Amino acid sequence: MNPVQLAWRVLRVDRRTQVSTVLTALGVAVATGLVLLLTSLPYATQARAERTLWQEATGYTESGGQVSFASSEDQVDGQVITRVDVAPLVDPAGIELPAGIDRLPAPGEMLQSPELAHLASVKPAAELADRFGARPAGLLGEDALMYPEQLVLLVGHTQETMPTSAVELTALASGEARPDGLLTLLAGVGVVVLLVPSLVLVASASRLTAARRERRLAALRLAGATPAQVTAMVGAETGLAAVVGAVLGVAMSPVLHSLATWVPWGGGTWFAQDFILPWPIIVLVAVAVPVLVVGAAVAGLRRVVNTPLMATGGHTSKPLSKGRLLIVPVAVLLFFASLSMAKESSSALLPLLASLGFLMWSPTVVGPWVTSALGGVFTKVWRKPSALLAGRRLRDDPKAAYRASAGVVLAVFAGSMALTLMPSLESEAGYYSPYRDSVLYVGTDAEHAPAVVEKADEGLERYGLAVRAAQVGQVQLKQGENYPQGYVVSCADARVLLPVSVDCRSEPAVYAPSGAALEFVSWSTESTPQGPAEELKPFEVTPVAAATGIVLIDPALMPADIELSNVDVAVPGNGHARESARTALLAAAGGAQVISKEMKLGEQNAELADLRRVTVIGLVTASVLGGLSAAIATAGSVMDRRRTFGALMAAGTPVHTLARALRAEAALPALVATVGAGALGTVVGVGLFGLVSESIPVFSPWLAAPIVLGALVALLAASVCSPALKRVRAEPLADE
């Protein structure tokens, strides 16, 4: 009889093997499905990037380009609007258009995404539609959108009406699309963080029949079976479950991908076709996961193969070496070494993930030693029989006792790592603006600024708003040893637009933090020295208390030959009038980028929201996997010792005493190990934060949450002891 036939026969007649096989198959299915989902994320972002190449200025050229191109962003109701302005520089018929764009809009026309067209039709024109300055001429197809809800428009121009920021491109869509670096990193970390608990779940499921299978294989060895035959039997028995699980995982991956399309990232959800994986990747994952599972099962046969008598008759465990404690500092050093490599080169991502996986595996080596030490304490200070029973179990078989805690420990590690990163990343959020938070402004130049102000005022008046636009110029100044920023703007406008407190004089004046003489400074390139300075005379400098240390210069006092370094057109806007003010300024700017507080913070807030979302999903998944593996491992521990517990019950040991001992041996190692895992996860989180920022990490009280949650999960998992013991009491020992 070949190994497969033998495994199939055992599976048909042994109910416990059937349960173990089903749980193992489900664990492999979960692991395969999660790996396929996480592996598909870089491909999904790559597909997004390929569809939106036309929205980016790639393929610059000084002359001979096909199109003049400008892009800007706007926002409405917290959603980003991407605007692309184009003007053909050659015959429009000769311009190759990207997928999803059937034609180039004529001057004064625009193509909109379906969601933007719908939004413009339901909102007042003053709050959205009037911003575009073009008439609708069609819709953009799905192949031109980053995500289904994207708000994007393509506006046609002549060369003369293009924004001042326009550049020439060799093609409307050129360059190489690249996957999202952040999501690629998170996907790699997710593979490590979720695959390991999934494999722990598989291992816990296979332990349901570990003792019985070990005795059966040992008997076969004593009966003359060779090590190769025993190994083949285990490989066949585990392989049946692993192969079925891998097939289920591949079959369920489209369902997981469909669910993933509803999880927003980068501003919106996903198209279903984004998550299509190349067949070689699918085959590789479908083969690799079962191979890992079968390999782990075969690796656990050493005692049966080498010393079958010990497997059948029992054995005395050797004390665990203290050398196991060195594995954690070695793993930490290896992780930080790979982290320093990753800072220098993005190609070092794979070694970083490998070292992270090694670091996550290290507690499984140290954990049994800690469990054994804890058992030693119990056996010395016990006051109740349940404590003595728990201590002897922890001392005699620490590896099996720790196995129930392994999944929970990994979940705590992942949670501590995430909750170290999130507050630190949130502390990085912020923005700088020279204007008040309520001000909207657009950059232009001294030549075009008066026309933008005039058109903006016309729009503001048409919408019934009392506010008006103002031109704000900037100059470089020197006052003594300081170089304050100078703003060329009237005092009345400065009080509304700039964060200054000043009492305006009735005549044009210069306002500065001190009364020292001012000089205009002409800055040049880095390779040439600072240009000449012209003293601001004969105007009187009026000292003001300005916390920002800026200088206000009335436009009437500006020398004609001084060139402004920057020119903005700014409009204050608050409440419901803010959207109308934005519309007036956008329409006047003709596609130039309008800047505001919400625009500057919007991208940061969106990224942080994405990170929070994937963190919650990852931690919930890891916690569920850890809790399930702990519950299964605890139940398996009871089933492995049915004969022992049956004998104790027959001798008169109360079930509640045994249940208390089982809960202690299942929960206490987890409670101790979660503290260490939390500290280790915090160290890793600090290291990963250093990969993206030079700031000092922020530590939140929420760091204790994974440890508390892990302890609760361990206690809940330990609660399966009582039902398992009742099942043992109900079955006669002869069944064993």
UniProtKB/TrEMBL annotation:
What are the ABC3 transporter permease C-terminal domain coordinates in residue numbering?
A: 191-308, 619-732
Q: Which UniProt keywords apply?
A: Cell membrane, Membrane, Transmembrane, Transmembrane helix
* Membrane topology listed for this record: Multi-pass membrane protein
Its main localization is membrane
Q: Does the keyword Transmembrane helix apply?
A: yes
Checking InterPro entries in the record gives: ABC3_permease_C
Lineage: superkingdom: Bacteria
Q: Where are the transmembrane segments?
A: 21-44, 182-209, 230-256, 276-302, 323-342, 348-379, 400-422, 616-639, 666-691, 703-725
This protein is called: FtsX-like permease family protein
